Amino acid sequence: MKIFVTGATGFVGSAVVQELKSAGHQVLGLVRSEANARSLATTGAEVHRGSLEDADSLRRGVEASDGVIHTAYNHDFINVTREAAAEADKCVIDILGAALEGSGRPLVITSGIGHLANGRVLTETDVPDPSPGSVRVIAERAALSLATRGVRPTVVRLSPSVHGDGDHAFIPMLIGIARQKGVSAYLGEGRNRWPAVHRLDAARLFRLALERGTAGSTFHGVADEGIPTREIAETIGRRLNVPVVSLSPEDAAQHFSWLARFLAVDAPASSARTQERLGWYPREPGLLADLKHGRYFEGGALLPDRHRAPVCPEGPLRMRPLPERTASAWRCRAPHQLPPGSMMTRGRAGRQRPAAARRRRRRRRAADERDTS
Known about the structure:
Layout: E1 2-6, H1 11-22, E2 26-31, H2 34-41, E3 46-49, H3 55-63, E4 67-70, H4 82-100, E5 106-112, H5 137-144, E6 152-158, E7 161-163, H6 170-181, E8 184-187, E9 193-198, H7 199-212, E10 217-221, E11 224-228, H8 229-240, E12 244-247, H9 249-256, H10 259-263, H11 272-278, H12 287-293, E13 317-319, E14 330-332, E15 343-344, H13 355-372
Parallel strand pairs: 1-2, 1-4, 2-3, 4-5, 5-6, 6-10, 7-9, 8-12
Antiparallel strand pairs: 9-11, 13-14, 13-15
Helix pairs in contact: 1-7, 3-4, 4-5, 6-8
């Protein structure tokens, strides 16, 4: 079959393209930029220039294909609200569905498990709560309703962490924050659980949903059913050689910024029904194994500026050692405010010296060089 793939050069979409081609399918990939067009062309896929905002380009992609896998989504939660991103996704699904109407062709859309979080193990039969916080529910409903209009829609719910080489989502952000702050943190006791799946396993799931999924089905991209966030923080802490601490919700909001809300999710999930119905079984390393042996810690780059937390206006972040590793151990103190025996954090900020001292040293070195010349 010839499959139209949105997000064809994205983290998940690029793996889907490779999976489809390996299985003998042809791929028509939606790309916006010239750079992405060149990247997609190197895979042997056919380039389809357009965008999610260009309805005509979406319709032409559908018309030229035997099925659609929709992986594109706006995850820029810094500049776009979750509600706006979800509404835009629904509009895309409406356009794709209208173009597929009456054809019986498959449409596989992407959703998430995190919006179902309720503290118990979630299954494929769980229906999203139509509450204001569950923004992805409108996309799921829009897609599944197409089953009555001559389309074969299926939903793939991905874990909060889709990991593997090239990951630029939650886990790299947590690593970047730990590098920036000099501490790897979790909320409360860290018992809330994150399901996870490797991107290559997720790609196979999309293909199988396309090939074997029945109209109106929902599948779970879950390999690790629920990893306690404390274990994730401890693994990051060991790899970076930084302290691991617990934070209260209030301190977490400042420490993690907008990511704190996602880190608080407790969403263990099962994929037993998916495995039984599609014959899909995860083969790739789990999240913790990927963190221990993957490429997440290569390069040592800090977070992009827009993801960094505010810097203390009074001076470098300092830590007073206390018996328990709690948020109360952390204080923002200028150097002259430090009590006797205090120590600097092991993070990047703690190693910085005042700018005035650096200037004085440079002047002394310059004077010494003049004296010896």
